[in-house]
Amino acid sequence: MKSGILILAVLVLTIAGCFRPVPKCDDEVAIDLVKQIAGRELTKQIGARSSQNFSFTVGGIRPMGTDQKTGAQTCGAQLGVRASNTKRSESLSIVYTVESTDEGVRVSVHGLY
Fold first, then answer.
1. CA–CA separation, 39 vs 71, rounded Å?
2. pTM above 0.70, yes or no
3. Residue 5 belongs to some domain of the structure
4. Separation CA 29–CA 40 (nearest Å)
């Protein structure tokens, strides 16, 4: 009987270890990925040299929904874009999705154009 309980406990812990929790909207990893994606998009639009003058902030983060099957989080936020050479700042409303994959965290950003 004790060996059956031990085997069951090991099986439960093994299966539980296979599932990664989905990060929340304000998770540091998710926010860093949003900034990286914004930087890549800006580089595509204006070139690598010019894009080095810009920095990004993510604020006003709010959860908008959760996919019941995957646990993916849909989030809204304000993306702040600041040019270091002119000190000018702009803000964009964006929507992003955060989900866990076998490789780690995946973020998709909408509203960067």
1. 27
2. yes
3. no
4. 17
